[in-house]
């Protein structure tokens, strides 16, 4: 009788990167603060962008995530926009990089170009499958964990250029489950694979229930996933924004949230209710000791400011997240100051 050797399936419940015991609490100095913007898609959007960037710069976020999509000319648009950001602000760009943006060979060229314009961090995602197809196109990396591996390989091949530093690599996490997932265990399997291949942190996709973030954190820790999981926050301004969130996340809008807008007809009242909901959810998320907050701005400065004001009213100040950035030293000031007495006698 022959013996059958069965190799156990690698599962998030026992990943090979799991430590012998759960890590002690991180000695975090402060929570991370970040924002996400979209490269301008029209002349009108480009004209408004400097004002938004100046505002975000005053908040001193840890990084500014820059999306990549067909409507903004994919990675060319991302690279051009990031070059502008690094030239005019102290913001630290994090470039979105999607498997669907190009073949592996094309991605290698674009990653090199992005490094050249100042990028030192990437958000590695699979991206949306092209309409009418069930998988990514031939020649493309299949999943984000493979993209993380590619980025770490590039990092290793360019140690001298990076001054022996590391690239920051973020990935996506799904508190309410990925639309294509078979269930919570597969979601954790995928997140564990991303960690195993070198991901540093995760940013969540949109979700409606703050408790789902807590559940993800708890299950991830028990599965040996120790990278920070940062909640993504999209300000709600009206019922249409809720339906936009549903479309982007693949989740139905909870009836209880829609009911908050019952009988409301004027936009100002709907906006106030929506921002109150967002602030309540954000406060609840922070009670679960989130490692930071990541705000999806949709390039809407007024709404971003209004949400931060709503959070301030709940005692949540962004000034407690990150320190102010150091003053810019380039380009040098054109104002000539009189030397001090000490300098005169030096």
Automatic annotation (TrEMBL):
What cofactor is this protein dependent on?
FAD
Q: Region entry Disordered: which residue ranges?
A: 1-21, 317-346
Record's keyword annotation contains Flavoprotein: yes
Q: Which domain of life is it from?
A: Bacteria
Q: In which pathway does it act?
A: One-carbon metabolism; tetrahydrofolate interconversion
Q: What is catalysed by this protein?
A: (6S)-5-methyl-5,6,7,8-tetrahydrofolate + NAD(+) = (6R)-5,10-methylene-5,6,7,8-tetrahydrofolate + NADH + H(+)
Q: Which InterPro entries match?
A: FAD-linked_oxidoreductase-like, Mehydrof_redctse-like
Which N-terminal residues, if any, form the signal peptide?
A: none
Gene Ontology cellular component terms for the protein in this record:
cytosol
GO MF annotation list: FAD binding; methylenetetrahydrofolate reductase (NADH) activity
Keyword terms of this UniProt record: FAD, Flavoprotein, Oxidoreductase
One of the GO biological process terms: tetrahydrofolate interconversion
- Asked if Zinc is a keyword of the record, the answer is no
User: In what ranges is there compositional bias, type Polar residues?
Assistant: 1-11
Cross-referenced Pfam families: MTHFR
The UniProt similarity line reads: Belongs to the methylenetetrahydrofolate reductase family.
PANTHER family, A to Z: METHYLENETETRAHYDROFOLATE REDUCTASE, METHYLENETETRAHYDROFOLATE REDUCTASE (NADPH)
Q: What is this protein called?
A: Methylenetetrahydrofolate reductase
The organism is Brevibacterium siliguriense
